[in-house]
Amino acid sequence: xxxxxxxxxxxxxxxxxxxxxxxxxxxxxxxxxxxxxxxxxxxxxxxxxxxxxxxx
Length: 56
Known about the structure:
The protein is mainly α. The protein has helices at 3-17, 27-43.
């Protein structure tokens, strides 16, 4: 599932953020949270706004 996109995300973590994504030690939690987010987006509970500033 979506491995090319994962590679892009991992590269971003490694080269820009200089950290290790939580996907490595917790792959099941990462996949589960992806599905939760997808269902929230599709159901209208969460809005998709790519231009919004990160809250982190």
